[in-house]
Amino acid sequence: MNGDGGHAPHGEQRRDTVARGSIVTILGANGAGKTTILKTVSGVMEPQKGTITFAGRPIHGLDPDRVARLGLSHVPEGREVFPFLTVRENLQMGAYTRRDPEGVAADLKVVHRYFPVLEARAAQKAGALSGGEQQMLAISRSLMARPTMMLLDEPSLGLA
Questions:
Q1: What is the pTM of this model?
Q2: How many other CB atoms are found less than 10 A from the CB of residue 153?
């Protein structure tokens, strides 16, 4: 995969495999291409060349919503929440592709166990949450999709 993240072209060819159940961390200096990798894998950016395969299927060139429907969830840097929607509505947006209301309700309970503050603030507008609470909401919204793989860009940003 080759990508250009705006800082400098990242022409390094990579061939990596991530095993199911594993946790992988990408480390590097600012501008090294960490965010570019995640955006390219999730379909936000197109690779300049090369291929990206997820679950045995090529996904390079697919729109982000198609990639998400295949089970890949991306939590971008910067607490991307829908500020004018409530916390509950933001979490429901995470489950928009699902057709199992009982499973969605069960996963909502799980998310509330992880982050009880989100249950307490369910009716509050997401834009009124603190930065750390917005990050919890962004991660939780991603979990509501019940993804096979999650990509988290700067997941501790804004957390105390």
A1: 0.86
A2: 18
